[in-house]
Design goal:
Layout: E1 2-3, H1 7-19, E2 28-29, H2 32-41, E3 46-50, H3 58-65, E4 70-75, H4 81-84, E5 91-94, H5 99-116, E6 126-130, E7 135-139, E8 143-148, E9 153-157, E10 161-164, H6 168-174, E11 180-184, E12 187-190, E13 196-198, E14 201-204, E15 207-210, H7 216-222
Parallel strand pairs: 1-2, 1-3, 3-4, 4-5
Antiparallel strand pairs: 6-7, 8-9, 8-12, 9-10, 11-12, 13-14, 14-15
């Protein structure tokens, strides 16, 4: 994601992202408040964030977000450099950003992501998740799908619905990828419990779950008819 109140700065970084293999521009905007719902939904690994913006400064946004994603700060003012590193940012780009400096930044970010990415639960039969008052055991075979709500995520199992303080992004990282697929910003499904697919929806136990445009290709790759 790119957030900068200068349209030309947004366009430049968007072009750099499109030229770089392995990167996907999910969202870009000049309005920081419009980006908040997208960031809160998860799914953003890296945010290029301007510091000086009228509605909310980049540093204020970092405080609001917490550790949701890696952040690269961008600014035309070098004096912010020292202050920015107090927020554990991945990098600091001084405008105008050149492509070679951008490429170095991406190398640095990739190294940090590799260091912090949790290992998937490859063969576990269950996981433990945080609820409001306890740590709950969830058997993976009984887990039908996970749904993102406003302040929680819901684990829909064959027996019950469990509200948890976990994040969609974290669950996407730790659940075994061969069994669980993210089909929408609000849904991760257990492939083993799918009844059928119909008209852009996955059906599990009578629940029709939409497949988001961003995830259609992934779903097609992982759910192929014989």
């Amino acid at each position: 994601m790119v957030i900068d109140d200068e349209p030309l700065a947004v366009k430049l970084l968007a072009d750099y992202i499109r030229k770089t293999p392995g990167l996907e521009l999910v969202y870009s905007t000049t309005k920081v408040l419009e980006a908040l719902p997208v960031l809160e939904d998860g799914g953003i690994d890296l945010l290029f964030l301007d510091i000086q913006m009228p509605e909310l400064t980049g540093l204020q946004l970092i405080k609001v977000l917490g550790p949701r994603c890696k952040v690269v700060l961008t600014t035309a003012y070098q004096e912010y450099a020292l202050q920015s590193y107090e927020y554990d940012v991945a990098d600091y780009l001084l405008k105008p950003v050149t492509f070679d400096r951008f490429a170095l930044c991406i190398q640095k970010v990739r190294s940090r992501l590799q260091e912090t990415t949790p290992q998937p639960v490859a063969s576990a039969a269950y996981i433990f998740v945080k609820t409001e008052y306890r740590v709950q055991k969830v058997t993976l075979d009984s887990l039908l799908y996970i749904e993102a709500l406003r302040d929680y995520i819901a684990f829909h199992t064959t027996e019950e619905k469990i509200l948890s303080l976990e994040s969609m992004r974290h669950m996407e990282e730790v659940l075994p990828a061969q069994q669980f697929i993210r089909i929408h910003k609000s849904y991760i499904i257990n492939k083993d419990n799918i009844d059928f697919l119909e008209r852009g929806k996955v059906v599990i136990r009578g629940q029709y779950l939409p497949i988001g445009d961003t995830y259609k290709e992934i779903v097609q790759q992982k759910i192929k008819p014989v």
